[in-house]
Write a structure and sequence with these properties.
The protein is α/β, with parallel strands linked by helices. The chain has a domain of 135 residues: Alpha-Beta Horseshoe (Leucine-rich repeat, LRR (right-handed beta-alpha superhelix)), CATH 3.80.10. The protein is 11% helix and 22% strand. The chain is built from four helices and 28 strands. The strands form seven sheets. It has a 15-stranded mixed β-sheet, with no helix packed on it. Strands 21-23-26 form a three-stranded parallel β-sheet, with no helix packed on it. Pfam families: LRR_1, LRR_4, LRR_8.
């Protein structure tokens, strides 16, 4: 097909203008004004900035000419102290990382009119003593406030965060959770990390009836027992981490209506006996970790009805006797670790009907024969 020469020239001019526009747009993606302060990377939907030691005011000023969305802004070691109102002017930021800035206070409206753009907020390794004002962050999906000085999750801390899926608050000084601190996210939250705090008991009231919660981490706290009805009505929970506490007993009805649990971690506690009732309900359990406890005996049928169990960790206990049929009828079980115990005797058929077992670790025991 032949075009009139004038049409061809017009097409060439339009193409050239389009290319120039594209080049200009790309050249404006990472503003020249930011180069001396931060590392800037072009991404498909915006830019990613990594700033170390630069002052917040100078970074915001250098980005004033940037009107596009910022995919991520990481600003660390800037000794911010107080995050004042409208600290980010008109910047539209999706992921904001302000970790390691000695922040002890965040004022109301610190994130300004553009707060609704923020989907991920990282405030780890600061000096915050309470959850900062988050009401303006309507689209917040993830918050990390680990390694601060929190002593509580305050009332209605997340009441306006209707998209929140992940809360990480490990390594604080949290000893209690206010009764209504998590109510507003019970229908949406998927991960809750409260490990490395000072909880002395399971915050049962706060944890009940989460609809989508898949991971709960309460490891490395000061919990000494799990009474009945502590974990209830958590239909999507897959991974429960309770290691590194002081748990000596798990009551028979400690867990109720947790049908999809796949991983139960109770390592590094003080459990001396393990009743079968608490764990037999977990038909989908794949990994059970009871290592580094004080178990002294495995009774018959200790782990029966765990049809999908694949890994059983019992190393570093004080087990002396493994009774007949102690571990039996677990058709999916592939690995049993009984290392570093005091086993003197394995009863006949102690391990029975385990067709997929391929690893049995018995090192550092007191067996003379098998």
């Amino acid at each position: 097909m032949n075009y009139h020469p004038a049409v061809g020239k017009l097409f060439q001019r339009l193409l050239a203008l389009a290319l120039i526009s594209l080049v200009v747009r790309c050249s404006q993606t990472c503003p020249i004004t930011i180069n001396s302060l931060c590392q800037c990377h072009n991404l498909h939907h915006g830019i990613a900035l990594q700033c170390t030691g630069a002052t917040l005011g100078k970074v915001v000023e250098a980005l004033a000419v940037h009107s596009e969305t910022i995919e991520s802004l990481t600003l660390r070691y800037s000794d911010i102290g107080t995050l004042e109102a409208n600290s980010f002017a008109s910047l539209a930021i999706k992921k904001l990382d302000l970790s390691s800035n000695n922040i002890h206070k965040i004022e109301e409206d610190a994130f300004g009119k553009q707060a609704s753009y923020i989907k991920e907020l990282l405030l780890a390794n600061n000096s915050l003593t309470e959850i900062p004002p988050l009401k303006a962050l309507k689209n917040l999906e993830k918050i990390d406030i680990s390694n601060n000085e929190l002593v509580d999750l305050t009332e209605y801390a997340f009441e306006q965060n209707e998209a929140l899926k992940v809360i990480r608050a490990k390594n604080n000084k949290i000893s209690t959770l206010s009764s209504n601190s998590l109510n507003e996210v019970k229908s949406i939250l998927e991960l809750l990390d409260l490990s490395g705090n000072q909880l002395t008991q399971v915050p049962a009231q706060n944890l009940r009836s989460f609809q989508k919660l898949r991971v709960v981490d309460l490891s490395d706290n000061l919990i000494d027992k799990i009474p009945n009805l502590q974990f209830m009505n958590m239909p999507e929970l897959r991974d429960l981490r309770l290691g590194g506490n002081k748990i000596a007993a798990v009551m028979p009805l400690a867990f109720m209506n947790i049908p999809k649990l796949e991983v139960l971690n109770l390592t590094r506690n003080a459990i001396t006996t393990m009743e079968t009732n608490p764990i037999q309900q977990f038909e989908n359990l794949e990994i059970l970790d009871l290592s580094w406890n004080k178990l002294n005996k495995l009774n018959a049928s200790s782990f029966k009805d765990l049809a999908k169990l694949k890994e059983l960790h019992l190393q570093n206990n004080e087990i002396q006797i493994v009774e007949t049929m102690a571990i039996s009828d677990n058709s999916e079980l592939r690995m049993i670790n009984l290392a570093n115990n005091k086993i003197k005797e394995l009863y006949k058929n102690a391990f029975d009907q385990l067709p997929n077992l391929n690893t049995l670790i018995l090192t550092n025991n007191q067996l003379h024969e098998i």
